[in-house]
Amino acid sequence: MLSIKREVVKLLSLFVVLLILLFASLMFINVNYGISTDTRNTMIYQGALLAQAVDETGVLPPSTDSGMLTIYNDIDEMPAYLKTHFRWSEMKNRQMLERYVVDDEGNKRYIYAMKYPIEHLGKHVYIVLNYLDDLENEIKYDDKIQRGNLVLISFGLILILVTIIAFTSILYWRLLNPVERMFHWITHSEQVQIPAEKELKYKELNRIVERVETNREQQKEFIKREEFFLRTLSHELRTPIAIILSSVELMERVIATQKVNTNQDAKLSQGAERATARIMYAVTNMKKLVQTLLWLSRKNDASLPTETVNLSSVVHRVIEDNRYLLQDKSVDLDIVNIDDGAEIIANDNVLQLLFENLIRNAFQYSHQGQIRIVVADRLFTIVNPVDSDESEQDYESYGIGLYLVEKICDKVHYRYEMETDADTVTASLRF
Questions:
Q1: What is the rounded radius of gyration, in angstroms, for the C-alpha atoms of the chain?
Q2: DSSP states of 276-314 as a string?
Q3: CA distance 281 to 205
Q4: Does 392 have pLDDT greater than 50?
Q5: How many CA atoms lie within 13 A of 248 on its CB side?
Q6: Inter-axis angle of helices 311-322 and 348-365, to 10 degrees?
Q7: Residue ranges of domains in the chain
Q8: DSSP string of 371-384?
């Protein structure tokens, strides 16, 4: 994932490189342009001096050749190589052309050429500046001039680098520092106070902080309501559970007394006993649920009492309790992969609540096909079929049971996974 700080550093580094290249290019262009401008001005000056002499005397002086500067009064006076490499007839007045040429003796020269008008006589002269390449390479120019140029260029580069570093520091301080302050507050909000508007500087960052703070407050309020609901529900259920439990115990004693004292119908007595047993079993499960909800609602990390629990026995018990959900359905139950010897150290109430929700959901939402349950060492998996239209239903359609499973697994550090494909749902618990 990209980092804003790294991206800014990369972009600034690229900007620095481009700026240096731009500076070097401008220096190169400036030097070449300066040389060309100075040379053209020199040639125009020589032509102006010649025109002034003609105005004073009325006579054009003969062609001159100083070795470097040559003024020809006529094209025919030029060497052949100058006639060949320059189109004098097409050249504009005071236009300077330059190029490398090879003279008639095979020497390489760099030539500046210009056609200058002598208006008093109505004709042109041809000014040529030439530099012999081999001779120029042999000449040793004054090192002070070169050193001065290097010092000037180095000073310019250093000045640019200092400016860039100062600009980068200011940019970092003004842009990245507020972002880092905001990030530090987001990641350490419990220890760090919310940054002031002046610290963040920018309204966009302040809006983000305000939004995050609002969301956190809403989340805290939601968690408080959830905890209050769980505590209230659990406490409110305790009283009716206790009343039902005591009533069932009383019914058991009454049934036992009547069975001894009267010749009551055996079938009626057995039916009452089974009904009483089912009520007792349901109430006991409800009591376990309430205890687990109370444990979940506590903020401390107090753990429930644990013991060695046989996974197979708990799973079989839950299967039998929920088998009625498969009545009148074309569903096969595959339980051959249940390891009867699989055991873990855990709380029996927690395991039963986990298995109860997963198995009940699988039985309830399966209409045809096969439900496969696997119990192995520290592993429980249940795979159930779903119809194509139901497979697209939202996860919430499976009810609060799976939410409770997630909460319990987070609390006891079990790993819960649920995968849905086109025609099956797979739920797994790893202890």
A1: 49
A2: HHHHHHHHHHHHHHHHHHHHHH-SS-PPPP-EEEEHHHH
A3: 58
A4: no
A5: 18
A6: 40
A7: 4-139, 220-297, 307-430
A8: EEEEEETTEEEEEE
Rounded to the nearest 10 degrees, what angle do helices 266-297 and 400-412 cross at? 60
SS3 250: helix
Asked if residue 81 lies in contact with residue 12, where contact means CB atoms within 8 angstroms, the answer is no
Q: Determine the 3-state secondary structure of 253 from DSSP.
A: helix
**Average of per-residue pLDDT values in the chain:** 81
Both tokens assigned to 332? 């096969």
Query: What's the CA dihedral at 87, 91, 94, 100 to 10 degrees?
Result: -30
| pLDDT cut 70: percent of the chain above it | 82
What are the tokens at 197? 């508007």
- Sheet of 69-72: strand order equals 64-65, 69-72, 123-132, 108-118, 96-102
For the domain bounded by 307-430, which CATH number is listed? 3.30.565.10
214 against 279, higher pLDDT: 214
Coil vs helix vs strand at 189: coil
* 150-157: long-range contacts, CB 8 A cutoff, minimum separation 24: 153/27, 156/23, 156/27, 157/20, 157/23
Tokens of 235: 């406490």
Q: Pick the closest to residue 385 from 409, 421, 355 (CA basis).
A: 421
Encode pLDDT of 138-183 as tens digits: 665 556 656 766 777 788 778 877 887 787 777 777 777 787 788 7
d(CA 120, CA 52): 9
Tokens coding 366: 């399966």
Side by side, the strands of the sheet bearing 424-430 are 330-338, 368-376, 379-385, 424-430, 415-420
Residue 55 half-sphere exposure toward CB, CA atoms < 13 A: 9
Paired tokens of 87: 């189109």
Angle formed at CA 89 by CA 87 and CA 93, multiple of 5 degrees: 100
Structure tokens at 311: 């996974």
Q: Report the candidate in 112, 81, 83, 84 with the shortest Cα–Cα distance to residue 98.
A: 112
Q: Which residues contact 121 (CB under 8 A, 6 or more apart)?
A: 54, 60
Q: Which candidate, 203, 196, 166, places its Cα nearest to that of 181?
A: 196
Choice between 134 and 354, residue whose per-residue pLDDT is larger: 354
Average pLDDT over residues 190-194: 74
The alpha carbon torsion through 172, 177, 180, 184 (nearest 10 deg) reads 160
